[in-house]
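Task card 7
Instruction: Convert sequence to structure tokens.
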Amino acid sequence: QVQLVESGGGLVQAGGSLRLSCAASIRTFNRYTMAWFRQPPGKEREFVASISWSGGSTGYADSVKGRFTISRDNGKNMAYLQMNSLKPEDTAVYYCAARTPTSVRYDYWGQGTQVTVSS
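Output:
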């Protein structure tokens, strides 16, 4: 009944940009905190960015601050991750995630989309 689908990944040269999208089939999408995580090859999944249900609060991993921007459009049930000044270290599978206001952990996850940054 709940599904998250990421899109927008691909191959880009260092210094380039990509915009990831997450389509959410959630009835009360406007009340969910949305986030992006990533998993580099051979490494653990790590937090990238999050945004509150109202869009009034955002958080970023230190590694992406100043380069990535998370946003959402509650009218379209969409979340986005604008990635600028990409580095080879950003290469990973990127996952969209969602949680309710009462949850500590993220309840729902997408299937992931591959982002590859070449040097």
